[in-house]
Design goal:
single chain, 217 residues, alpha+beta, 7 helices, 4 strands, 62% helix, 13% strand, elongated
Length: 217
């Protein structure tokens, strides 16, 4: 017990001595060193804040670059990126992937007769109608002047045909202008070389629909 007490006392004395040494060393440090360290800390915090703000700005800018300014839905850049991503996922895991490409019928007449302002209203209304009717997991995009597309993950051809019929009947029904919607559909197949393969088939399907082949795939 005596030995333990002595050890505790020696430890305490060593701690006191150590504290005194540290205090003396600190007291001998020039004041300007503390000011310099403080300034470096302020600079570091400012740099971190600037980096965070710039990163946030770039993230918002990238998000804005994916949105069609007129309609507020995804644009062609966002469409191409998502289609490639979903095609790779379907190819890798053997999942279903559906695609619809659509074109407005009679849109040119609206522009020619009533002007581009009226045409812009039609495009916005169609975009919002499509976006409202599709699932959250789908991507609705404007990919051209009066061309739209919908990427439908986990969706086979039978479901696409049902969705196409519903969209053809409902999307333009409440529009002020008389326009129609030609919709082409395609689904991923293992023989696809890349994402452009399914897009090409959906395009061809859409043009066949425009020629009057309403059940065309």
């Amino acid at each position: 017990t005596r030995r333990t007490t002595d050890q505790i006392q020696r430890n305490a004395e060593s701690g006191v001595v150590g504290s005194l040494v540290v205090t003396r060393i600190i007291s001998e440090i020039p004041t300007w060193v503390f000011w310099a360290l403080g300034a470096l800390g302020v600079i570091a915090l400012a740099g971190l804040a600037l980096y965070t703000r710039e990163r946030r700005r770039r993230r918002f800018a990238e998000a804005d670059a994916m949105v069609d300014e007129l309609t507020g839905i995804s644009n062609r850049k966002a469409f191409d990126r998502r289609l490639d991503l979903e095609w790779r996922r379907a190819a890798r895991y053997g999942r279903s992937l559906g695609l619809m490409v659509m074109d407005l019928d009679g849109f040119k007449q609206v522009n020619d007769i009533k002007g581009h302002a009226a045409g812009d209203v039609v495009l916005r209304d169609v975009a919002q109608a499509l976006d409202k009717r599709m699932r959250d997991t789908d991507l609705v995009a404007r990919i051209g002047g009066d061309e739209f597309a919908v990427i439908c993950p986990e969706t086979g051809i039978n479901e696409l045909m049902t969705i196409r019929r519903q969209l053809s009947e409902q999307t333009t029904r409440e529009l002020k202008e008389v326009v129609g919607l030609s919709i082409g559909v395609a689904e991923y197949v293992p023989s696809d070389d890349d994402a452009t393969s399914i897009l090409a088939r959906a395009d061809e399907s859409m043009y066949r629909v425009k020629r009057g082949e309403a059940t065309a795939l």
